[in-house]
Each structure stands twice: as structure tokens, then as C-alpha cells.
Amino acid sequence: MTLESVPLDGTNGVRIEILERSDTTLVIRWVEPGRCHYGEQRWRRRSAHTSGTCAVTRRKIRRGDAVFKPAERPAPSNASAMICAEVLGELAEA
């Protein structure tokens, strides 16, 4: 499914835009002032290997939860970031 560019305000001033979406992948524009900027970064759906916090909602993520994570190699600066997969379902409903 292709979306209009969906801007989201993430944690710590991160600006996230979902450019494309499918059930298993996202293409995201990630702008983290003073740290990194990825114009078209591919993220894949997977189970969280560690606990953490959703980059969009700040919800707690537990190990095993469905999340999207950066899929590029070598590992990008935001490699530890995660977005809860359920957030995308909520966006689709809105």
C-alpha cells in the first residue's frame, strides 16, 4: 500500500515520514536534527529482540512484540530505533 507522505513527530525531536507501506516493509524519511538524515530508509517488520520504546508513540515495547526496524546494512545510526507495528493499524483507521 502506498500512502501520501505521513508526517509523524517522534521522540527527541525526530521527524518521521512514512513514504510507502506494506504489511512487511516501510520506506521512511527519518530526520534527527544534528545526528542523521535518511531520505528513503527501508524498515522491515520483525519481532523485537529487546525491550525498548516506540520512536513514534513512546509506548513501551517488550521483547517479542511486532515492530518495524531499519533493515539497511551496514547498520545505520538509528539501527536501535523501533516503531510499534500496531501504530500503523491505528494510522490506517484514522
Automatic annotation (TrEMBL):
Origin: domain of life: Bacteria
InterPro entries named in the record: DUF3331
Protein name: DUF3331 domain-containing protein
Species the sequence originates in: Paraburkholderia phytofirmans OLGA172
